[in-house]
Structures are given as C-alpha cells and as structure tokens.
Specification:
Blueprint lengths: L4 H13 L3 H8 L4 E2 L3 E2 L8 E3 L4 E6 L9 E7 L14 E7 L1 E7 L6 E6 L3 E4 L4 E6 L6 E7 L1 H8 L2 H6 L20 E3 L3 E4 L1 E2 L8 E2 L7 E8 L4 E8 L7 E2 L6 E6 L2 E6 L6 E5 L4 E2 L6 E6 L5 E8 L21 E2 L6 H13 L8
Parallel strand pairs: 1-4, 13-16
Antiparallel strand pairs: 2-22, 3-4, 4-5, 5-11, 6-9, 6-11, 7-8, 7-10, 9-14, 12-13, 15-16, 16-17, 17-24, 18-25, 19-22, 19-24, 20-21, 20-23
C-alpha cells in the first residue's frame, strides 16, 4: 500500500520531534511527569487531574528504568472510582494509603471484585478490564502501579491497539472466580507464586544469607505478569552486598531508614538517603548497595523484570564478580564503604554487626 502525502507528513513529524511513542503518549495525559533519579516520599508527589483515569495522578520515569518499564501514582477521591480501562501491557499495583476494591472482567465475561488496603499488592492481568473503587467516604485512596507501558508502546507504536485490542489473553486470565483468593504456592526455598497479597508488611520472609548477613528475602511471582517482585529485609547494624543487573528494577522502601550507594564501575558512588515510601531505580549495570541505619529492621519491595514464567531479560547472577557473577563480596568491597556505614551508625548510637 502506498502512503498518502498526509500520512508521510505525520510520520516525518514524529521523526522530527525525536520522541518515542511512549513519550508522546505520556505528554498527552496532561499530568506531571517525574523524570528523576530518586523520590524520597511517594505520598508527597504532586498530582494533576487525569481524565483517562478518572482521578488525579502523575507519571514516574525513574532514570534507572531505561525506558523498559515505568510507574504512575493515582489518587481516588473519597467514595470515588476510577474509569474502567484495559491495556496490552503489564501492571502491578501497590496500595500506598486507603482502602477499597477492584472489579475485574474479560470482555463479555462475569465480573469479580476483591478488596484491598494499604500494603496490598496485586496484578492486573494483561488486557483484562478493571476499575478501582475507594471504600472510604472520608479519605482518599492512593496507589502506585508499575507497568511495561514504555516497552510495549515503543515496540508497537499504536495506541489504538494498546488500549482497544479485543484479544483475550486466556493464558494469563480466563475469568477464574478464585483468581484473587488462596494462599498461593511456594516453589523451592524462596519463590512464592500468588496473585494477591492483602498486606505485604505482614509477610514472613525466608533466610537469604547469600545476599548479606542478616538478610531475608522472598521472591514473588505475582500472578500472570512478566514483571516480578521480591521483598528483602535486613537487620539492625547490617547492610546488603553490592550487586548489579540490567535496567528496570524499581525499589520502594517499606520500613526503616538508611541509604543506598549506586555507581557505574570505576566511578565514585552516588548516595541516596531513604525512608518509608522512598523509591529508587538503579541504572543499567550500576552497582548498588543498601544500608540499614535505623534502630529497627529495614524492608523494601523491588519490582523488576524476569518472572520465571515469562522471562524477558537476562537473570541476575548471585555469585561473586570474580566467578563471573554480579555481586561484590564483603571482603572485596572498597573499605570506605564499611567506614561510611559505621560512621552513620555511630551518629545514632547504633552498634555495627558487620564484624
């Protein structure tokens, strides 16, 4: 088929602005777009009216995601609801504050509804219809969602297909009435396959000393998504080993206070001090290391690529860089790292447990 002059003009215009399909879509939303390295408190992010969502929101494009995934914050008014929608990209939802319910259905299928609260984590199946409802008449509900929209929009370059595709991905969700019920299934020591977590703060994590002394970790295969989660906890006076991986991991601090160091090989580390509801994304192949400087345990939730069921990118290799892995062992790290950590602890009268 031969393109018309008008079609050619549109294509040339798209080339001239130098923007990706996702970037143009994001600007069309009319909401704040945060392009940053680190956000200290997600509950303090300023939002704007978002017509497509039927609420207020903001898009988050952390530098470390490498345009492979993104996040957005959405806020629903008391007794309000979001606009129904579907889309051909992954979405994981973590509730920051409030309580409510979500109704989910396939085109022409039976609707099902499940309730959520602050701390809930759940998946939106690929291209299924969904709508959120605020269960409080006096308080807003605010959530952050992690999506693969940048990757999908830039590959397909067709918003009509992304938001109005009629295809039903039955291998992801076939209208099962118990989809958001049940305890899930554990595989091996650490992998938990589950579709809905009522309160992630209550999880009993599994011992994982290979990532650092006093560390506990659970890998969460969150339903039918190519995005995966893992939750880590490390105890007072300790920190995790440095490691690196591909772009796309987004880390929310759930409990405790501390800091992270991030650096490309051969460059001085950049420091980010965090607290609950901080979010950070390590750039592609940057080493990064997390330090607990609070008087209580620290927990964080990481959303990233590489579900075991729907693998997209190369796996993280949890062994020493000396053995071809991606992790720096304690005995191989720069001594200044331990010194900086213990200096921060001494300011708070906390004893290091790293000896």
């Amino acid at each position: 088929m031969i393109s018309t002059p008008a079609e050619n003009s549109t294509k040339l215009g798209a080339l001239a602005d130098g923007k990706s399909s996702y970037e143009r879509w994001a600007e069309q939303q009319g909401v704040p777009i945060l392009k940053t390295f680190f956000i200290q408190d997600l509950n303090e992010v300023a939002l704007g009216p978002w017509e497509r969502k039927g609420g207020r929101g903001a898009l988050i494009n952390l530098e470390g995601t490498g345009d492979t995934d993104d996040a957005y914050i959405c806020e629903i008014d008391p007794a309000g609801k979001s606009a129904p929608e579907r889309h051909v990209y992954e979405e994981l939802v973590y509730v920051l504050e409030g309580r409510g319910a979500t109704t989910l259905w396939q085109e022409g299928g039976v609707k099902q509804t499940f309730e959520w609260q602050a701390g809930s984590l759940f998946v939106i199946p690929l291209n299924a219809w969904f709508q959120h409802f605020n269960g409080s008449g006096t308080q807003v509900a605010r959530y952050i969602a992690f999506t693969s929209a940048p990757l999908m929009m830039n590959l397909l370059n067709d918003q009509e297909f992304i938001f109005n595709c009629p295809y039903v991905f039955r291998n992801r969700f076939d209208g099962e009435v118990d989809y958001y019920k049940g305890e899930g299934t554990y595989y091996g020591k650490q992998i938990w396959d589950v579709n809905f977590i009522a309160n992630i703060h209550e999880l009993n994590l599994k011992e994982s000393e290979e990532h650092g002394r006093g560390n506990r970790t659970t890998i969460i295969e969150i339903g039918c998504s190519a995005l995966i989660a893992h939750m880590s906890q490390f105890s007072v006076g300790r920190y995790k080993k440095a490691h690196r991986h591909a772009a796309g991991a987004q880390i929310i601090i759930l409990e405790g206070e501390g800091f992270s160091l991030l650096w490309p090989e051969g460059v001085e580390p950049k420091r980010c001090d965090w607290k609950p509801n901080s979010i950070i994304s390590p750039p592609d192949q940057w080493f990064h290391q997390h330090f607990n400087t609070s008087e209580t345990q620290t927990r964080y939730l990481a959303i990233r690529w590489n579900s075991k069921k729907y693998k997209v990118f190369k796996d993280i290799v949890d062994r020493s860089v000396k053995e071809g892995g991606t992790q720096i062992e304690y005995e191989d790290e720069d001594p200044k790292i331990r010194q900086e950590f213990e200096s921060e602890l001494s300011k708070k009268g906390i004893k290091s447990r790293m000896s």
